[in-house]
C-alpha cells in the first residue's frame, strides 16, 4: 500500500493552494503516494482555475480519511472549513482594492484577512499532526505558512518545527535541509544571530550530532560520516576569533567519537570549506551552527529542489523550503518543484 501523505495547504493567501493543485494534477504523484490535502476545500476549488491544465480537476471534500478516493483527477481535501473566502485577500488584489477603499478600511480588512489566514494555517498543521500521531496518515508534508500571521492569530511559535515539537511532545529535534547528497542539520534556527551564538553549547551540539547520525541511518546510510561546522571564521583560529570551537564544539565531538560516531576530521571544520567537502563525499550530513549557515549553502546549490525534514520526532515531517510568495500568490505561476 502506498503511504498516505497528509499535506497542509499552508497560508490560504499564500502559494500553498496552487502548489497543492499543481502537485496533485500530475498522475505520477499518485504512483508513489496517496496524497491528502489538509485545508479548506473552497480554497483549493478557487485555485484550480488559476492553474493551467488543471481545469478538469475535481475536489472531494471529506471529514474522515477513510472517505478519500486517492484517484488522479480528484483532489481529496480534509476540509476544516475555517476560511471565509470572501474575506481572503491576496497581495496582488490590494492595489485594485485601494482604488475603492480608503486606507484605514483597507488596512483593517487586510489585517482581518491575515489573522484569519494565520489561524487557518495553524489549524491545518495541528490537524495533520493529530492525524499522523493517530496513525491515520503515514507522514506529513507542509506548505509554507507565515510566522507573523500565526502570531497575529495568537499562536506564538517561530515556525512549523516548533509547532510540531510542542504537539508531539518532543524535546530534542532539529531541522534538516536536503538536496540530493548535500544534507545539513541545525544547532539553532529561528533566533537572532546574536542568540544563535549563545545557543552554541556542548550539550546541544552533541544532541544534534546524535540526531544527524540517526537521521542518516533512517535514510538508509548504514555507516554515516558526520561533518561538524565551526561557528567562527577559521574555526576560531585557536581562540583568536572566538572560543566556541575549543570550549563547546570540540568537547561535543570528542564525546560523539567516544560513542563510535564517525566524524572523519575529529574536529570542527571551517564553515567556508565544510560544504565543499560534503559535496565531495567527505560527509553524509553536516551539523551547522545556525540557520543561515546551512540555508545559504543548500539554497545556493538549488533553491527549487531543496526540501526540509524535521528529525528527532515520532512522526515524519517534510516541507517545501521556501516561503509563501505573497507577491505572486494567486496568479498560478508559482513552482511546485519543492
Can you describe what's shown?
There is one protein chain. This protein has 338 residues and is of the alpha/beta class. It is built from twelve helices and eleven strands. It has helices at 16-24, 29-32, 41-47, 91-98, 103-133, 147-152, 160-167, 193-198, 202-218, 244-258, 271-279, 291-301, and strands spanning 4-8, 34-39, 58-62, 74-79, 139-142, 174-179, 182-186, 226-228, 285-288, 307-311, 317-320. The protein has an eleven-stranded mixed beta sheet, sandwiched between helices. Helix 5 (103-133) packs across helix 7 and helix 9 (202-218) crosses helix 10. The protein is globular, with a radius of gyration of 21 Å. The two termini are 24 Å apart. The mean pLDDT is 94.
Core attributes:
338 residues; 16% strand; 11 strands
Quick structural gist:
With 338 residues, this protein is of the alpha/beta class.
Amino acid at each position: 500500500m502506498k503511504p498516505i501523505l497528509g499535506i497542509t495547504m499552508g497560508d490560504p493567501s499564500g502559494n500553498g493552494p496552487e502548489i497543492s493543485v499543481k502537485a496533485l494534477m500530475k498522475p505520477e504523484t499518485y504512483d508513489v503516494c496517496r496524497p491528502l490535502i489538509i485545508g479548506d476545500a473552497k480554497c483549493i476549488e478557487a485555485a484550480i482555475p488559476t492553474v493551467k491544465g488543471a481545469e478538469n480537476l475535481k475536489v472531494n471534500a471529506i471529514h474522515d480519511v477513510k472517505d478519500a478516493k486517492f484517484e488522479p483527477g480528484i483532489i481529496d481535501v480534509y476540509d476544516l472549513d475555517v476560511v471565509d473566502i470572501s474575506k481572503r485577500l491576496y497581495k496582488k488584489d490590494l492595489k485594485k482594492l485601494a482604488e475603492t477603499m480608503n486606507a484605514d478600511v483597507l488596512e483593517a480588512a487586510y489585517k482581518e484577512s491575515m489573522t484569519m489566514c494565520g489561524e487557518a494555517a495553524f489549524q491545518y498543521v495541528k490537524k495533520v499532526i493529530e492525524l499522523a500521531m493517530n496513525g491515520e496518515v503515514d507522514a506529513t508534508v507542509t506548505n509554507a505558512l507565515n510566522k507573523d500571521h500565526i502570531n497575529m492569530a495568537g499562536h506564538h511559535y517561530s515556525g512549523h518545527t516548533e509547532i510540531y515539537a510542542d504537539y508531539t511532545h518532543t524535546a530534542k529535534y532539529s531541522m534538516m535541509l536536503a538536496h540530493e547528497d548535500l544534507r545539513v542539520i541545525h544547532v539553532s534556527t529561528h533566533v537572532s544571530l546574536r542568540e544563535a551564538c549563545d545557543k552554541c553549547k556542548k550539550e546541544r551540539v552533541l544532541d544534534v550530532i546524535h540526531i544527524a547520525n540517526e537521521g542518516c541511518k533512517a535514510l538508509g546510510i548504514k555507516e554515516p560520516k558526520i561533518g561538524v561546522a565551526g561557528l567562527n571564521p577559521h574555526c576560531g583560529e585557536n581562540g583568536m576569533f572566538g572560543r566556541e570551537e575549543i570550549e563547546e564544539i570540540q568537547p561535543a565531538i570528542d564525546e560523539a567519537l567516544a560513542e563510535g560516531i564517525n566524524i572523519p576530521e575529529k574536529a570542527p571544520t571551517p564553515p567556508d570549506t565544510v560544504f565543499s567537502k560534503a559535496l565531495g563525499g567527505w560527509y553524509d550530513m553536516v551539523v551547522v551552527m545556525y540557520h543561515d549557515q546551512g540555508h545559504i549553502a543548500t539554497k545556493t546549490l538549488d533553491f527549487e529542489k531543496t526540501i526540509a525534514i524535521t528529525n528527532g520526532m515520532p512522526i515524519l515531517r517534510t516541507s517545501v523550503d521556501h516561503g509563501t510568495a505573497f507577491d505572486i500568490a494567486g496568479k498560478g505561476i508559482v513552482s511546485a518543484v519543492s
